Amino acid sequence: MKEIRHNWTKEEIVDIYRMPLMELLYRAATVHREYHDPNKVQVSTLLSIKTGGCPEDCGYCPQAARYHTDIEGNDLMSVSQVKAQALRAKASGSSRVCMGAAWRNVKDGPEFDQVLEMVRTINKLDMEVCCTLGMLTENQAKRLAEAGLYAYNHNLDTSEDYYKDVISTRAYKDRLDTIDNVRKSNVTVCSGGIIGMGEKLEDRAGMLVALSTLDPQPESVPINALVAVEGTPMEDMEPVPIWDMIRMVATTRIVMPRTQVRLSAGRTGMSREGQAMCFFAGANSIFAGDKLLTTPNPDVNEDMEMFRLLGLEPQAAFEKMPQPKTVEQADSKFESKGEKPKWTRPGHQIERNEIARQQAKS
Ligand code: SF4
Question: Where along the chain is [2Fe-2S] cluster bound (predicted)?
C-alpha cells in the first residue's frame, strides 16, 4: 500500500484515465476499499439560498445575470426557511446540507450575518453544513468556522489552461486563494469541477493535478457532468458519455484516495447501471432532491430505490471527520465519542501516517 501522493503529473493522470476500463475499475475499486466503506454513500442536499442575478460570467451557469435563462431569481432565504428545508432533507436521509448563494464574493454585513446564523442553525441539527458563497477572505473563513461550518465548496471547474475559455470575470488564482483561505481555518475543503464543457482530456487531468497536489488534498471533490441550459453559452454542448464520468470518477479516486468523491450534477441523464459503475469506481456521495441549485436532479425516492437495489446505505453525518491536525487528535476524536479507534483497517493506518507526516512538516 502506498502513501498519499501530492506530486501527480498530467501525463501520469492521462495514462490512468486511458487505461483499459476493466483495469481502471479494478484499481479504483481496490483503492476505494482501502480507505472507505464501499457500501456507504453519503446523501447530501443542495439548497439555493440566493438564486440568480450573479455578476460573474461562468459559461455553464444559468444564474449569471447576463444570460437569458428561465431561472427565477430569489433574494436571500430566511433562517427559518432554511431550517425547514434542512429538517425535510434530514428526514429523507440527507446527512449534509450545502447552501449555495449566487455571489461573486462574500461581503461582510447583514446578509453574511444571516448566513452565519443559518450555519449555526443547521449545525444544531447534527448535520454537516457546507456553504458555497463565492470568493472568501481568511477572516470570513474563520467566522464561518466559528459558526460551525463543516465544509466550504469552491470548485476549480477545469484546468488552469481551459479556465479562461469558461470564465473571464475572475482568474484561476482567485479560486486557489479562496481554497487557501478556507484551509487556514478549521473548515474542510470541497473543490471539484465539471466535465463536458468542451475541454480536452488533458484539461480534465490538469484539474486533477491542481487538486491532488494540494497538501492536504481536498476532503471532498464533486465531479459534475455539464447540464447544458438553454440561454447559456454552453447550451449546445453534447451530453457527457457515461464512460467519461466513470473514467473521471475512477481516476479521481486513484489520485485522491481519502477524498469523498461526489457524483454531482448530470445524474438525471445516467442510468442506474451507469451510476452503479460510478459507485464501484469510487464515488461515495450523491446530491438528493429534485433540484441541484437550479438544474434537475433525480427524485429522492428514486435514489432510495437505487440504494435498495444496490445494497447501499446512506452514510451518517460526520462519519468522515475533518482531517485532524495531530495523531493524538485523530485518536482522541474516536475515544471522546466512546468509540473504538478505527485504525484497524489498512487505510486508516495510512491516514494516521499521513497525519504524522503533516505534523513533522509543520
Ligand atoms: S457559477 Fe457561481 S459565480 Fe459563476 S455565474 Fe453561477 S452563481 Fe455566479
Answer: 98, 130, 190, 262
Residue 61 labelled as part of a binding site: yes
Q: Which of 58, 131, 183, 278 is catalytic?
A: 58
Atom of ligand 1 nearest to the CA of 54: 8
Q: Is 54 considered catalytic here?
A: yes
Which residue's alpha carbon is at the smallest distance from atom 7 of ligand 1? 102
Can you tell me which residue has the cell 485532524? 324
Q: Evaluate whether residue 322 is within a structural domain.
A: no
Based on the domain organization, do 140 and 112 belong to the same domain?
A: yes
Determine which one of 190, 204, 258, 267 is catalytic: 190
Last residue of a domain, one of 293, 314, 335: 314
**Residue 278 annotated as part of some ligand binding site:** no
Give tens-digit pLDDT for 152-167: 999 999 999 999 999 9
* CB within 8 Å of 203: residues ≥ 6 apart: 158, 159, 161, 162
pLDDT tens-digit map of 83-136: 999 998 888 888 899 999 999 999 999 999 999 999 999 998 888 899 999 999
Query: Quick check: helix, strand or coil at residue 248?
Result: helix
Angle subtended at Cα 164 by Cα 140 and Cα 5, rounded to the nearest 5 degrees: 65
**Bond preceding residue 216 cis, omega within 30 of 0:** yes
How long, in residues, is the chain? 362
